[in-house]
Design brief:
Layout: H1 19-24, H2 28-44, H3 46-64, H4 83-86, H5 88-110, H6 115-131, H7 142-150, H8 154-169, E1 193-198, E2 202-207, E3 213-215, E4 219-222, H9 240-246, E5 251-256, H10 268-286, E6 291-296, H11 298-312, E7 318-324, H12 336-339, H13 343-356, E8 358-359, H14 361-371, H15 373-386, H16 395-400, E9 406-407, H17 408-420, E10 430-431, E11 434-435, E12 444-450, H18 458-462, E13 473-478, H19 482-486, E14 496-499, H20 509-515, E15 517-520, H21 524-532, E16 538-540
Parallel strand pairs: 4-5, 4-6, 6-7, 7-12, 12-13
Antiparallel strand pairs: 1-2, 2-5, 3-16, 8-9, 10-11, 13-14, 14-15
Helix pairs in contact: 2-6, 3-5, 5-6, 8-15, 10-11, 13-17, 14-15
């Protein structure tokens, strides 16, 4: 069955966000500019507003006389309580909101503006409408009212405590996860291993083999700099490291230090040089000249820069590479939030981080959340504050909230990727002490995207297939979002992925879709077969970690993970 026959709306799944857009942030001036444009268009076309007013009035009359047939989307969890349908007051409240939402969308569609301005208006109005949903308030939420009555007000007291704790302990960000059940090194990130190399910037972890034989060519994992490395080793049933070891791979994991202001000058070139030094250690420990590499999200940007620099140096150690949910040539039309990114916004973002020395992890977390406010903000406001419930204890959310800072220099380098498009304009930018040119990178590549990824939309990830000089490139589309596209262990009966057989993928994502086929299950086993075929012959597993020059130190997951 081809992907076009599955009934999945793949074309509409990439409309919510873009990876580097989050690092740019949204300037107040750009948001105000979008609002100003909205007001200008409104004042300049009174006939359109008169038409809109008539439509709104007609809906309000129908709602007030209980004749309206407006209903929420069946997938909209905000209106699942039966009271929204059975109680006239709540039904009128819901229908008034739905009518306003409908007419705002219609108004945006009718605006005589270009696509970029329309995307900006749509983003701003969507955020406003999401915040105005009646269920976001105690008086407008029937579930919260019933809960308060049933508990004698105890739910409201717990909600106030949760709100106070977030203000005092969570930088004013509504909590998305109950972190209390998770202890790093005890029930999460517990795969046995040891630090075999340590610098002020990173720890290199080697994991203990679990099979009698291992493949000769090791795998070096390059994590993103904006989260902790243990995404690769969550709970045992979700540990990618554990899966690799079970299949005879020799994984080495870089764990970046969480930088502070004193590390403000660490740039992309410094991170790449650290990886090259780590490769020297991996070579020395395993005896293999070749190394396979993998990087996800911003770690994929670092990995692509590494591959380019290795080629420029005549270094042929990179045997094959895997890029997961990573955008190398971001475009403003990748997403609605991307439309709000301006040259002025980039300038202000660079100035802010340069002044502070770092881009704080809490700022990035807040920006991530507001890309999907219904799911990542208001959902938790209702659950934690109005219902007085604890957020879920979920290992992926625990990791996601364990954010790290970004140095001013690295932030500036990522903004250069947005400004100069160095991965697209081959050889035009001098980054990491060389003219960056990934068209000369010719190792085999495996590239992963996620159908519902709102951080790195899959079609934007797909564009990377056209940037490298490799003759063999496999693109796989996981039926998941940003993080769960990566953390996708076998065993989930709902899991599926899409892949097209053949050589180098076609020029566009749309053309690829026409030949891609749906496969049931996790993409991990498919990738493992691909990786094993490029990991050399099997040989006896090492009896000990490290070697004489690089003895094992702190047990995995190391010490930097606690910073």
């Amino acid at each position: 069955m081809t992907t076009g026959e599955t009934g999945i709306d793949l074309d509409g799944a990439d409309q919510a966000g873009g990876g580097l857009n989050i690092m740019v942030g949204l300037a107040r001036e750009d948001l105000l500019g979008a609002v100003t444009m909205m007001l200008r268009e409104t004042a300049g076309n009174p006939l359109r507003m008169m038409k809109l007013g008539q439509a709104v009035a007609s809906d309000m009359v129908s709602i007030a006389t209980l004749r309206s047939d407006l209903k929420p989307d069946p997938k909209d969890k905000r209106f699942l309580d039966p009271a929204w349908q059975q109680n006239p007051l709540f039904r009128m409240s819901m229908q008034t909101y739905l009518a306003a939402q409908k007419h705002v969308k219609s108004w945006v569609t009718d605006l005589e503006v270009d696509d970029l301005e329309r995307a900006r208006v749509n983003f701003v109005t969507s955020m406003i409408m999401d915040s105005l949903a009646p269920g976001n308030t105690l008086a407008g939420n029937p579930t919260a009212i019933k809960k308060a009555i049933e508990t004698g007000g105890q739910s409201l007291m717990r909600g106030l405590k949760n709100a106070y704790d977030d203000m005092v302990k969570n930088d004013g960000i509504v909590s998305q996860v109950d972190s209390r059940p998770f202890k790093i090194g005890e029930n999460i990130a517990i795969q046995p291993g040891a630090v075999v190399h340590c610098t002020p910037m990173m720890e290199l972890i080697q994991y203990a083999p679990t099979t009698a034989d291992v493949h000769a060519i090791p795998l070096l994992i390059i994590p993103p700099q904006i989260n902790k490395a243990y995404l690769q080793d969550l709970t045992p049933d979700k540990s990618m490291i554990r899966f690799m070891l079970a299949n005879g791979i020799q994984p080495f994991l870089i764990s970046w230090r969480n930088p502070t202001i004193e590390h403000r000058d660490w740039g992309l070139g410094h991170y790449v040089d650290e990886i090259i030094a780590a490769m020297d250690v991996v070579n020395a420990i395993t005896g293999s000249h070749k190394i396979n590499v993998t990087g996800g999200c911003s770690g994929g940007i670092t990995m692509a820069t590494l591959l380019s620099k290795l080629k420029a140096r005549g270094d042929d150690r990179a045997n094959c590479a895997t890029a997961m949910v990573c955008i190398l040539n971001p475009e403003r039309n990748d997403s609605e939030v991307g439309a709000l990114v301006s040259d002025n916004g980039i300038k202000l973002a660079r100035e802010r981080s340069a002044k502070k020395g770092i881009l704080e992890g809490t700022s990035l977390s807040r920006m991530f959340a507001w890309l999907r406010p219904n799911d990542l903000v208001w959902n938790y406001v209702v659950n934690n504050y109005l219902l007085g419930e604890d957020p879920p204890a979920f290992d992926i959310l625990f990791w996601n909230n364990d954010s790290t800072n970004l140095t001013a220099a690295l932030h500036s380098d990522y903004l250069r990727v947005y400004e100069e498009q160095p991965f697209l304009n081959h050889g035009a930018s001098h980054i990491a002490d060389h003219a960056l040119d990934i068209s000369k990178v010719d190792c085999d590549l495996f590239i992963l995207g996620g159908v519902t990824d709102h951080i790195t939309p899959w079609k934007a990830c797909y564009r990377s297939t056209q940037l490298f000089g490799s003759a063999s490139i496999d693109f796989v589309l996981s039926h998941s979002g940003h993080i769960q596209a990566i953390v996708n262990p076998p065993g989930n009966p709902k899991a599926k992925y899409y892949h097209a057989e053949g050589g180098k993928p076609p020029a566009t994502a749309e053309a690829w879709l026409k030949t891609a086929r749906e496969h049931a299950g996790s993409w991990w086993p498919f990738w493992m077969q691909w990786l094993q075929a490029r990991s050399g012959p099997q040989q006896p597993a090492p009896a000990a970690l490290g070697n004489a020059a690089h003895p094992p130190g702190a047990a995995a997951p190391g010490t930097y993970v606690f910073n």
